[in-house]
Amino acid sequence: MLTIESLKVRYGGIVALHEVSIEVQRGETVLLVGSNGAGKSSLINAVIGLVPNVSGRIQFDGRDLAGMSCAARARLGIGYSPEGRRVFSSLSVTENVLSSTLGHPVAKVGENLAWIRKTFPLVVERARQPANQLSGGQQQIVALARAVSTMPKLLLLDEPFLGLAPIWIERISDAIRELQRRGTTILMTEQMARPALKLVDRAYVMRSGEIRRSGTVEEIRGVALAEEYL
Question: In degrees rounded to 5, what are phi and psi of residue 6?
Answer without folding.
Answer: 50, 45
